[in-house]
Design goal:
By secondary structure, this protein is mostly helical. It is built from eight helices and no strands.
């Protein structure tokens, strides 16, 4: 129960600290040029543009915000699987795959949350200490992305074809895309530091 409350509070704190106001008059060109380097640039621009005023031209703030977006999408995905597992009429194999997805998405959520905290530590660190903290962030976000992609493995094969599989794949794609983008932006920040 505590983790269900802690995750949204962490997200709200990150968003609050980021001063997330809708960009009015801010130049989104930094976001667009930064998003041009990621795997899902349209998703990147769409998810980060509302925070342009806060991000401004800061690679650190861009990485923070991208992780906060990933955290929020991970929470939404976890909520989705919690509801889906209560769906009547699921095949036993579907229910098992959904429970597996819930577990790996929960792990992913935890890793992204830890990454946000660690990235804050990175900004105060110098030299080898910065590299160590940044390595933690990169490892945890990469692991979160692997967790998300692992979820769909349980829905392999023709026996799993149908609405549930299609819905799960779409939900996982949304979270995996923002997490992939966040990892790329974290990596870009690390290179520029």
């Amino acid at each position: 129960m505590a983790s269900k409350i802690a995750i949204p509070l962490i997200f709200l704190a990150v968003v609050y600290l980021a001063g997330t106001t809708i960009a009015t008059g801010a130049k989104p060109s930094f976001i667009k040029s930064s998003c041009a380097t990621v795997r899902y640039p349209a998703v990147c621009v769409k998810s980060l543009s509302p925070f342009a005023k806060t991000i401004q031209n800061s690679p650190a703030q861009l990485a923070h915000t991208a992780l906060a977006v990933s955290l929020k999408q991970s929470q939404s995905t976890q909520d989705y699987f919690n509801k889906l597992k209560r769906f009547k009429g699921l095949k036993p194999r579907e229910l098992s795959a959904i429970k597996d997805c819930l577990e790996v998405v929960s792990d992913s959520l935890d890793r992204v949350s830890k990454s946000i905290k660690e990235l804050k530590t990175c900004e105060r660190a110098k030299g080898q200490e910065f590299l160590w903290h940044m390595s933690n962030v990169q490892t945890w976000v990469s692991s979160a992305l692997t967790d998300e992609n692992t979820c769909t493995d349980g829905f392999g094969g023709r026996a799993m074809e149908g609405r549930i599989k299609t819905s799960v794949q779409a939900q996982i794609a949304r979270v995996a895309h923002v997490t992939s983008n966040a990892l790329a932006l974290v990596n870009n920040f690390a290179k520029k530091h």
